[in-house]
Amino acid sequence: MQNVKLAIIGAGSSYTPELIEGLVQEKESLPVGEIAFYDIDEERLEVMTAFCRRYLKHLGHNIPITPTTDRLEAIQGARFVDVQIRVGGNAQRVLDERIPLKYGIVGQETTGPGGMLKALRTIPVMLEIARDVERYSSDAWIINYTNPTGLVTEAVTKYTQAQIAGLCSGGLFPQWRASDALNVPPESIRYDYVGLNHLNFTFNITVDGRPLNEEEFDRVADRASWGAIDPGLIKTLRLIPSPYLQYYFHTSKKINEAVEKEYTRGEEVQRLEAEVFAAYADPDQKAKPEALARRGGGGYSEIALAVMQAIHNNREKIIVVNVPNRGAVRGLPDDAVVEIPCAVDAAGIHGLSVPEVPSTVWGIIAAVKNYEQLAVEAAVKGSRELALMALLAHPLVQDYEIARPLLDELLEANRPYLPTFFDVDGAATAIDPHQ
Amino acid sequence: MQNVKLAIIGAGSSYTPELIEGLVQEKESLPVGEIAFYDIDEERLEVMTAFCRRYLKHLGHNIPITPTTDRLEAIQGARFVDVQIRVGGNAQRVLDERIPLKYGIVGQETTGPGGMLKALRTIPVMLEIARDVERYSSDAWIINYTNPTGLVTEAVTKYTQAQIAGLCSGGLFPQWRASDALNVPPESIRYDYVGLNHLNFTFNITVDGRPLNEEEFDRVADRASWGAIDPGLIKTLRLIPSPYLQYYFHTSKKINEAVEKEYTRGEEVQRLEAEVFAAYADPDQKAKPEALARRGGGGYSEIALAVMQAIHNNREKIIVVNVPNRGAVRGLPDDAVVEIPCAVDAAGIHGLSVPEVPSTVWGIIAAVKNYEQLAVEAAVKGSRELALMALLAHPLVQDYEIARPLLDELLEANRPYLPTFFDVDGAATAIDPHQ
Amino acid sequence: MQNVKLAIIGAGSSYTPELIEGLVQEKESLPVGEIAFYDIDEERLEVMTAFCRRYLKHLGHNIPITPTTDRLEAIQGARFVDVQIRVGGNAQRVLDERIPLKYGIVGQETTGPGGMLKALRTIPVMLEIARDVERYSSDAWIINYTNPTGLVTEAVTKYTQAQIAGLCSGGLFPQWRASDALNVPPESIRYDYVGLNHLNFTFNITVDGRPLNEEEFDRVADRASWGAIDPGLIKTLRLIPSPYLQYYFHTSKKINEAVEKEYTRGEEVQRLEAEVFAAYADPDQKAKPEALARRGGGGYSEIALAVMQAIHNNREKIIVVNVPNRGAVRGLPDDAVVEIPCAVDAAGIHGLSVPEVPSTVWGIIAAVKNYEQLAVEAAVKGSRELALMALLAHPLVQDYEIARPLLDELLEANRPYLPTFFDVDGAATAIDPHQ
Amino acid sequence: MQNVKLAIIGAGSSYTPELIEGLVQEKESLPVGEIAFYDIDEERLEVMTAFCRRYLKHLGHNIPITPTTDRLEAIQGARFVDVQIRVGGNAQRVLDERIPLKYGIVGQETTGPGGMLKALRTIPVMLEIARDVERYSSDAWIINYTNPTGLVTEAVTKYTQAQIAGLCSGGLFPQWRASDALNVPPESIRYDYVGLNHLNFTFNITVDGRPLNEEEFDRVADRASWGAIDPGLIKTLRLIPSPYLQYYFHTSKKINEAVEKEYTRGEEVQRLEAEVFAAYADPDQKAKPEALARRGGGGYSEIALAVMQAIHNNREKIIVVNVPNRGAVRGLPDDAVVEIPCAVDAAGIHGLSVPEVPSTVWGIIAAVKNYEQLAVEAAVKGSRELALMALLAHPLVQDYEIARPLLDELLEANRPYLPTFFDVDGAATAIDPHQ
User: Which residues pair with D166 in a beta bridge?
Assistant: First the structure.
C-alpha cells in the first residue's frame, strides 16, 4: 500500500486541524503522503497552511502540505478529495437564519428555507468540483461534508459520474448517546437507521447483539434528547430521531426561542470563528486553540477517516452514508439520496437493504425527500418555479401566501451567489408557470 | 336481471331524497324493488320515510320503503348497503371545527385533527356495520359516503371481508370544472388522478383524447380554483388539486378566515338542516325543499348511482373510488386506501395502475397517508399513543407542544363517542409509552 | 364525430376481408370514410383491393379503398394504422418451424427460437413504420396484430413515441370458452388475466360477478383445454393457461407430434392461402371464400374493432392489450410489455393494476419476459451475443450446446431479412464476447 | 467475552473434523468452551466423538465434547447450533440422482427433482430442530449447511422465529477462483453477487477496488469454469455463474455424461465415506484421514467460522448468506430466501441492497425461485399438488407428461421419509385438484 494524496477543498475551514489530528492518529492505517490545501480565500489558506504545519510538527509527524488556489492542481493525483466549503460564508448563513423568521418560519442552516438557499448556492459549485474530479481524477473519492450533504450528494450522483461519500456525523450520534447512557463501549452498539441527512431515525438498538429493554431504551432516550427533542416524545415514538427533528416536532417552540434571541447561531459562529482564526494566525499557536471546542460541530473527521480507511485498506466497515437509494429504502425513488448504513470498502459504498421504514415516520421522510428533490432540480436548472414548488412541498412551509414572498426575498438576498437564477444583467428570471 | 333491494344506513340524512331522485331517474338501468330505511334516530326516520313516499309519488314512481331500527333487518337480502352516517351529529362536528382553531390549527370536518376525531368516532360504528354485511349479506356492496371516506374504507378493508366502494364526488369535480371551463360535454373529459380522499391531484386532462393546450389548462385552472385554491398556484403546479388542498396551501389564510367568522360551517349546516327538516316534516311538502340547495354537499348520489349501475349491469365504468392500493400507486403500502380511477363492474372494483405520481406532490400524499394509517389504527385499537403519533405525522400539526393538549381536549370532548378510548367507568386510558 | 381514415399496412393479408366485414357491421359506431391499402406485394395488393371493393358492395356498404405502395401516403391523415405484416412470408415461417426441430427444440411461429427469428425479422420493419407514424401522423394509433405482438410492441414503445395497441385475440379466448362451457353470454364473463402474449393465465373467473364454483371451473377447464393443454393440468393449476402454454407444459409431446407430421403448420397455411387467394382473384367471388374458415387464426378483427371503437367514441372498454408494464405487474421491469386488461378510451390505454400474479406461474412469466427483452434488444442492435443470451434465457432452449449451432443456422437461413445482423457485404457479424 | 457452547446436529457427518480443525485455528477469536455432538446414528456418534477427541489432542487443544442422542440436551445453552444433517442418508441421494435420469431429466443432489425430494425429506426435520431452538435456546443462531440450504432456510424463516444463517461455500467460490487466476490475495477481491443457493451470479469483480479489465476477466472466467461451465459462455455473459448452472446451460451434456457413468456421485460418496469412516474408527487415527480430501465438498467450515466469529465478536463482516429477501433483490417476493452478500455482526444478518439483477439472468433466477417456493410449501403441507406444480415451475422439468410419473416414482421411493405426504397407514394422499 503506497501513501495517498489527500486534497482538501475549502482548506481554510476552521475544521481542517481536526482532520489533520485524525490523520496523525490514524497514520498507520491511512498513510497520507501529501495534502493539497485549496481555498478561494488566500488569506485563510495562508494562515491555515502555516498553522497546520506547526500543528503537525507539534504532533510529531510530518506530511508535506501544498497550498494552492488552483483547484485542478489540488485534485489531480488525489485519492481522496475532502470538500468542506461554505458558499457565501457565514454572512449568507445569517440571512438564511433571519429571513424565514420574519415570515414565522424556521430559519436554520440546513433545515427549511434556509437549507434550501444553502443548497441553491452550493450545488452549482459542487457540480464544478465533481466534474473536475470526474475528468481529472476519476478514481478519486469525494469525501463530502459540505452541507446540506444530502442535497449536495444527490446533485453530484445525478449529474456527474464522480465517486462521492456524503457524510455527516449524525450516523454516529445514536452510538455516542447510547454508549454514554448505558456505559458500554460505542463499538458494542448497533442499530437500524433510516431517513435523510438531518431527518433520520434510529431503531432496533442492540448492545452486543442483545436488544435494549424498555428501561435501557428510556435511558438512551433521555441522553439522545440532547436538549433538542422532548424525551417523552422519543419514548412514545420508540425511535431516536435526529436532533434536527426538533424543527419539525417542536416548531413553535424553536421559532419563539429564535425570535427572542439577539443573535442567530450563524452570528455566534462568526464571532467564535474570528476568535479561532486569530489563534490560528498567532505564530506561537501550535495546538488546537481552546476556542475551537466552543465552535462545535466537530465529529466529521471521525467518520471521514473511517470511510477513507475502509476504502484505502479494502477492509469493510458499516458506516452511515448518504447514497442514492436504488431500492434500499422502499417507497422512495431510485435516484433519491438517503442516509442509511452502508458497507464501505475499496469497491465502493453499498447500501444495506432497509426492510421496513418505521410506521410512524415514513410519511415525513417522503415529504422532506420530495422537497429535497425539487430543491436539487431548482438549483441545477435555476428555476424559480421549482424553488417555489420545493417550498410548497416542504412540511415547514407549504403555505403559498408565505412561500411566494419568502422565496422572493431569499433569492434577492442571495443574488450574487445564484448564477443560474439571475441572468448576465442580474435581472431576475421571470416566473413563468408554463415552464 | 331482477329488482334489487337497497338498504340505506343513516336514512334520516338530509341527502336521502337526492338518492331517491337518482333512483327514479335511473330506474331502467337500476331497477330497485325495495328500499330499507335504517336510522338510530326514530324521529328523523319517520319524517324521512313519510317525505320520501310522498316524493316518490310526486315523481310518478313507486318503490316500497321499509323503515326499521333493526340494522340486520335492513341489511339482510340487500344488494347495496348505502351508508351515510354521522356519528355524534353536527354537534360534534362543530367541536371538531372549533377546538383545533384554539391551538392555531385548521379546524375542518375531514382535514386535520377534526377529521381524525370524526374517524375515531365513526370507524368503530362502520366496522360493526361491515361485520354485519360480511356475515349476513356477504354478496352485498357497501356504498359508502360516510366521511372521512378514505379512513373509513381503509378500516373496513383491513379489518373485514365486506365489499365496499368508498365514494366521494371529488373524483368528478375536475370533470365538472373542465366541462364548464371549456364548454364541452363532461363525458368528453378524461384525466389521470391520484392521491387520497380530499387530497388528490388531477393531471393529463384530455378532451376527446386531445391533451389540453396551455391556454385551455389555464381556463380550467381558473374554474377549478373554486374560490379555494389560488389559480396562480394551480398554473404553477400544472395539476388540479382537490379544493381541500386549500387547508395545506393556504393554511394561514384559512385559519385567519375561520377565526374571524362567527359561525363554523358545522353551525351553518345545523341551521340549514333544521330548516330542511322542517320542510320535510311538512305533510304538504312533496318535492325537494328549496333550502336543500343551500345545504350543499350533494353530488354523492351521482357517483353512487354510477357504481351501483356498473355493478348491477356488469357494464364496466371508470370511476374514481377509494380502494386498497395493492401496487396501483408506487411508494405507498399495499393496504393503504388510495383514491384513484377504477374499473367498476359486477366482478368488483379494480384500480387502474398509476405509472407516475406527479413529482411535485408525492411527498404530501405520503405524509397524509402516514397520518391516515396511524389514525385508523388508533381508532381500531383505542390507542392514545397512536392518535398522538397520527397528529405528529400530520403536516398540519406535527408540533408536539400543540399535539398533546389538543389531543387531550379533543378526546375529552368526544368521550361519549369513543368506546375504545375510554373504559367502562369512563376513565381515560393512561398514556403508556411502552405500549 | 367525423368519419375516420384507416390505413392497413400489409393489406394483402388474407385476413383483410374479415376486418372489412367488421367495419361494415360496426359502421354506426366506427364510421370509416376512407381505407388506404398498403402492401409491398403489388399483386396481392391489386387482388385484395378488387376483392374488397366487390365484398363491400356485396355487403351493401360503400367505403372508398385507396391502394398504394407508398407507405407515407397510406399513413398520412390516418386515425388508425392497422399493421398485419409478415416479414419473409410463410416461407420463412416454415424454416422457423423446421430448423429448431432438428435440435430437439420446439419449432413454432411465435414460441421459442422460431418466434425469436420472427421478431428479429419483423422489429426493424415495425420500427420504420412506427417512426413514420410518429413523424407524419402523430395522433394516429397503430393497431398491431403483427406477431410476435408482445415483442413488436415492446420495441415500438421503447424506441419510438408512436401510439400503439398491441393486440391478440388471446385475451378474449377465456371468455369464449367459458361462455361455451357455461352456456352464458360472453359479456357476463369477467376474469383477471396476467402474463405475456401467448404466455398468459386467466383466473378469478366470474359470471355476472359471481365466482365460479368448482364444478363450473372444471367445465370451463375442459373447454379451455382446446386440445392443447391437458384438462387435468388446468384443474390442478386452477388457472386457464393460454393454449400456447402447451409448448411449455407438453414439450416432449409437441415435439414428437411435430417430428411425425409431414407438414408444418406453416406449410399447411401456404397451401390454404394459395387456395384462398385463388378465390379472391376470381372476379365472381364476392363474399368471403369458404377456404378462409379452414385458414383459421381469425378473431383479431373483433378485438381490433373494439379498440378502435373505444378510442373513436371515447367510451371506456376493458380490453386485454399488450402495454408497457410501468408498475402494473409486480416483479417485472417498467419497460417490459405485458398482456393485461386495460381501460381503453380516447385518452389512451391504461393498464389495470394486477395485485398478485398467481403463485404457481410468476416464475415462467419472468423467465420468458427476460428472453423477450433480450430478443428485442438483439433485434434492435443486430447483436448475435444478445440473441444467444436470449436463447439461453429461454426456458425452451437454455442449453449452450444447442443454442450456439441452432442460432447460427437460424440466422444464416434468415440472412436476407436481417439487415442489422449482416453487414453490407453480407458477412456475418463476428461474435465478440467483449461487446 | 465468555466461552461459547456449540451444538453440532448431525455430528456423525464426515465433515465434523474439518469444523473441529477450524475451531482450533480460530480459538482466539472464537473461544469455544463446549461442543455437544448430537446424531441419531449412535454408532457414527461414538466413532466421531472418539476420533474428534483424539484429533483435538493431536492439534494440541482441548475442548470438552459431549455426545448425546437427546437433541434438547445438545441445543440448550448453545450459542451456535450447527446443522449438517442428511435425511435418508446417501442411499436416498442415490435415488434422487438415478430416478430423474430415467425420465431424461437431470438427477442431482440439490438441483432439479432430486433436490426437491431432498427438500421434502429434510424440511420437516429442520422445522422440528428450529422449533426446539426457538423454544429452548432463542438467542442461539442456527448455522445451517444442510442442503438444499436455500429451501431449508426459507422454510425455517417462514415457519419459525429461530435465527438462522443459511450457508454455502459458493459465496467464496468466485473469490477463490479470481485469487488463483490473478495471483492476488483472496481478500483483495470484491464483487457483486445475486441469486439463489446453487443458482447465483457474480459480477462487478474488483481487485483492491479496481474493476477487472477484459483480459483479467477472461482469465478469471477460465478458472471459474471449473470444468463445469464452458468458458466461452462465461465470457459471453460477463458474469461468473455458480458451477451448478452447468445443469441449466449444459443440460443435455450433463444428462448424457450421467447416463454413461456406471456410478452416480452419491454412490462414489458412499464408497469414499465408508473408507473415511473406517479410518475415523481406527483408534490410531489421530489426524484427518487422507481419503477425506477425495470426499470433497469442504469449505463450509471456513464460512461457518466467519459467521460465528462476526456474531460472537460483534465485528462486521460481509459474507454471502441465504436470507429472506425483504426488498434486497427487486422482483422477488419479500419472503423468498435469496443468496446475497450480507453484513453479519452480533445484531444479525443484514442483506446488502442489490440495485440491479443482471439483465441476462433475472428470469432464470425468478423461475427457479418460483419452483423453490412451491417446493417449500409442498414440504410443509405434504401436498402432492404443490409438489407437482413445483416440478412444472422448474425450468429443468416443466413437462406435465414427465412430471406426473416422475413425481409418483420419487415420492414412492421416499415413502419412509415423507411423513407429511403419507398418512398413518402409509397410503398415498390422493391427488385432489380442488385442494
Answer: D144, D322
| Every domain of chain C and the residues it spans | 4-166
Cβ atoms C21, C58 nearer than 8 A:
no
Phi, psi of D242 (to 5 degrees): -55, 145
Task: Fill in the DSSP letter of residue A68.
Answer: E
Band of residue B420 on the pLDDT scale cut at 50, 70, 90: confident
Record the cell numbers describing residue A209, joined without a space.
Answer: 447483539
Find out whether A3 and A33 touch, Cβ atoms under 8 Å.
yes
Lowest mean pLDDT: which of B426-435, C135-144, C217-226, C228-237? B426-435
Task: Specify the 3-state DSSP secondary structure of B227.
Answer: coil
- What span, in angstroms and rounded, lies between the C-alpha atoms of A202 and A239? 6
The Cα of D186 is separated from the nearest Cα of chain A by a number of Å equal to 12
B428 confidence band (pLDDT: 50, 70, 90): low
D406 by Cβ neighbours in 10 Å (0-12 / 13-18 / 19+) ranks as buried
Are C209 and B348 an interchain contact pair (Cβ–Cβ within 8 Å)? yes
The three-class DSSP label of residue B416 is: helix
Q: How many CB atoms lie within 10 A of CB B102?
A: 12
Structure confidence by residue, pLDDT tens digits, A249-270: 999 999 999 999 999 999 999 9
According to DSSP, the residues that pair with C189 across neighbouring strands are C207
Q: Cell digits for C103?
A: 435440435
What pLDDT was estimated at residue D109?
95
The angle formed by the CA atoms of residues D229, D232 and D235, to the nearest 5 degrees, is 100
C 306-335 residues with CB < 8 A to B: 311, 314, 316-318, 326-328, 330, 334
Check: complex ipTM more than 0.90: yes
Query: A249 and B431 in contact by Cβ < 8 A?
Result: no
CATH level 3 topology of D4-166: Rossmann fold (3.40.50)
Q: Do C190 and B318 touch (CB under 8 A)?
A: no
Catalytic, B244? Answer yes
Give the side-chain half-sphere CA count within 13 A for C430. Answer: 4
Do the Cβ atoms of D375 and D197 come closer than 8 Å? no
CA distance A316 to A177: 24
pTM: 0.96
The DSSP H or E segment spanning C174 is helix C173-182
Q: Which residue of A lies nearest to D344 if distances are taken between CA atoms?
A: A318
Q: Tens digit of pLDDT for each residue in A109-118?
A: 999 999 999 9
User: How is the beta sheet containing B80-83 ordered, strand by strand?
Assistant: B65-68, B32-38, B4-9, B80-83, B141-144, B163-166, B317-324, B337-345, B348-351
Q: Are B353 and B378 in contact (CB under 8 A)?
A: no
pLDDT of the residue at C435: 37
* CA–CA separation, A91 and B77 (whole Å): 74
Crossing angle between the packed helical segments B384-393 and B113-136, to the nearest 10 degrees: 120
* Strand pairing report for B348-351 and B337-345: antiparallel
Nearest CA in chain D to C373: D359
Measure C335 CA to nearest chain B CA, in Å: 11
User: What are C429's three cell numbers?
Assistant: 457479424
Residue B160, φ and ψ in degrees, nearest 5? -140, 170
The DSSP bridge pattern shows strands B210-211 and B199-207 to be antiparallel
Look at residue D297 in the predicted model and tell me its pLDDT.
63
Check pLDDT > 70 for residue B145: yes
Cα C271 versus chain centre, distance? 22
Nearest CA in chain A to D212: A347
| CA A421 – CA A116 distance, rounded (Å) | 14
Quick one: DSSP state of residue B328?
A: S
Considering only the C-alpha atoms of chain A, give the largest distance between any 2 of them, rounded to a whole number of Å. Answer: 63
User: Is cis: bond before D100, omega within 30 of 0?
Assistant: no
Signed CA dihedral, A166, A167, A170, A175: sign only: positive
Res D408 pLDDT > 80? yes
Whether B430 has a pLDDT exceeding 50, the answer reads no
